[in-house]
Amino acid sequence: MRLNRRLAYFCASVLAVGATAPAFAQSAYDGLWHVTIVTKSGSCEPSASSTLTVTDGKISAAGQNVSGSIGREGLVRVSINGAYANGQLNGNAGSGKWNGASAGIPCSGRWEASRQ
Q1: What is the pLDDT of residues 46-61, one digit of tens each?
Q2: Which of 13, 18, 68, 99 could form a disulfide with 76 if both were Cys (CB 3.0 to 4.6 A apart)?
Q3: What torsion, rounded to 10 degrees, do the Cα atoms 98, 101, 105, 108 define?
Q4: How is the chain classified by DSSP, letter by letter?
Q5: Model's pTM, two decimal places?
């Protein structure tokens, strides 16, 4: 799977998974999220987007290895298939930074998300 798709899932997971607090039923961030990633440096795809589902504070993305959490104040930290992202959610939107690699060459950029 291309890095841009992995990063899109990853950034969406970013939305749904973050800091160090354990997941709790019906988190304030549950629902569908549209995530867009933009590469600022490196040879990764210039941009990608995806819609992901957050349930009980956890993200789901078929076929993806996602881990992370969202803190009570919306602090997001997540990893997916070797890429990492962090940022902040506030209400129905959020943004942050990501970094990873494509063919061993480092890439990085920003992500933005909005609740659907």
Answers
A1: 998 877 777 777 777 7
A2: 18
A3: -10
A4: --HHHHHHHHHHHHHH-BSSSPP-SS-TT-EEEEEEEEEEESSS-SEEEEEEEEETTEEE-TT--EEEEE-TT-EEEEEETTEEEEEEEETTEEEEEEEEEETTEEEEEEEEEEE-
A5: 0.75
Strands 58-60 and 66-70: unpaired
**In which residue are the tokens 């933009």 written?**
38
Tokens of 63: 């076929």
- Both tokens assigned to 64: 């993806």
Domains and their CATH numbers in the chain: 3-115 (2.40.128)
